[in-house]
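Why do we care about 3D structure at all? Because function follows from shape, and shape follows, mostly, from sequence. That is the central idea of this module. The next example makes it concrete: a single protein chain, its amino acid sequence, and then its structure expressed as tokens.
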Amino acid sequence: MRTIKLYDGTPLPVMGLGTWAMGGRSNPDPSQDKRALEAIKAALEIGYTHIDTAEMYANGHTEELVGQTIRGVERSKLFITTKVRPPNLSYQRTLASIDGSLQRLGLDTIDLFLIHWRDSTPLAETFRALNEAVQAGKIRYLGVSNFDVDEMKESQELSETPIVTNQVPYSLTTRSYVQNGVIPYCQENEIVVTAYSPVEEGRLHVQQVLEEIAAVHDATPYQIALAWLVQQPWVITIPMSHNPTHLQQNWDAAEITLTSEEMARLEALG
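And the structure:
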């Protein structure tokens, strides 16, 4: 698996596992637990090491399911990302959020911790808590999600350690964070773009160009859509699937090499 190296040399795989809607969406759905646990286990067996989750997912229940599945897995082989939700961005609530995520995940340290979305809380207040948590060893790396360029620059000023990623919606047909300058800014400043909803939750419109390129590579159109993302500098992605076949296909997509002509044809779809 190809990786992008963070500022200290730590390798981050270009293909990770998203967990939104595993075990519920806004609220827990225990009827989905078995399906979610089997999917996360299948991903680990395929070779996935980066798992992305959030306290907002199923109101913390998804973190619990991730924690159950990774129990017993060698910690050094995992890279776990989670996020604080907007209502918890005050100093005290952020600290409590970090501790809650650690407990649900069954971890002593979160690899990457993100601000999920902004609210009216001053960023300085949130980063006071985040910086303390890094100093205490509860968090290794800090990042943001759904931030514009100005918010990113403010975060970089407030964070005592480098901001390593901005997680944003990005796909062949979703280019709003290219248009607002975020993705070019990240690439110019060696900040990882973590593309979520890379195939529009399975609703990506498959155009003829995508089908033609997929046929050349003996791949699915969705694999080509993922390959287009991770072949770009400083871009990784975190597709979610419960289907073991799709999990394997997503993983294999990272090894597809598109020609410059194919990249340009796909770029034009946006």
